């Protein structure tokens, strides 16, 4: 009987549900990905975030498949939420069609993909538009259940929302978010348009775990700094994606549903914002007319 803890679900603008906490697979080697995905599912995680660019879609799907086969009565495909992303180099209608086919082939053991994100807006209007048309078709044919974006700034979202043939709105914008990077305006824009927000690098890539205020909060709540950061993300209404390749960290990173931060502590952490990025920042990638203006 599967009695491990599970994350609550939130409803996306597609009508489908997503667990509020997932596990990230950036930099997880393909040959470890299956075991980590399998162990994560046994721990209680039900949402797994991969990408073509991480070169581990096959491994993650393999781990999910192993877990499903182990106990078909209790371990159900419909309870697992698998995400992948379209690499920037495959923007454009035909290229994205092919990239999707490849991702679906690599993950065919799990039958369909729950969410495909445009990994970043870094191409041009025509290519981004072509990519979105291909993704909309994948939703129509059922091979992909939800589509969204990642690293889209307000200008990229406005562009997408104004496509003349827009049929499917993005369900999610996946962004780097943590107390040192709160992106309030972009977050507000997403909320206003019913786009849920996933938080990547929610642990600051372990760069800020020794922050004195964070350490104090950890002691106050009897939790680790990593757990406080994940809880902050949840308390902000984000869907955090902490990554680990260390099995002993899986359970603690998931053990965040038995407490909440006091409003004053959320505020204290919000006050850390200094627009600090530990990853890339394609949210500022210029639109076509901005590029022309710069010439
Ligand atoms: N869309 C995008 O452009 C984009 C960009 C970046 C990330 N992401 C997604 O978001 C996920 C998370 O982001 P991220 O991987 O950049 O960073 P992160 O989750 O903030 O940090 C991961 C780092 O923290 C360490 N760590 C994990 N749990 C820990 C704990 N309890 N105590 C101390 N250290 C701990 C990990 O080490 P070990 O692995 O050695 O445990 C790893 O070095 C990615 O894996 C990916 O799925 C998306």
UniProtKB/TrEMBL annotation:
Occurrences of domain NADP-dependent oxidoreductase (ranges)? 29-273
- Binding annotation for substrate: 119
Pfam families from the UniProt entry: Aldo_ket_red
Keywords of the record, alphabetical order, are: Oxidoreductase
Keyword check for Transmembrane: no
Indicate the secretion signal residues. none
Provide the active-site residues from the annotation.
54 (proton donor)
| A single MF term (Gene Ontology) | oxidoreductase activity, acting on the CH-OH group of donors, NAD or NADP as acceptor
Provide the site residues for: Lowers pKa of active site Tyr: 85
Of which family is this protein a member?
Belongs to the aldo/keto reductase family.
Cite the PANTHER family for this sequence. Answer: 2,5-DIKETO-D-GLUCONIC ACID REDUCTASE (PTHR43827), ALDO_KETO REDUCTASE FAMILY PROTEIN (PTHR43827:SF13)
Q: What name does this protein carry?
A: NADP-dependent oxidoreductase domain-containing protein
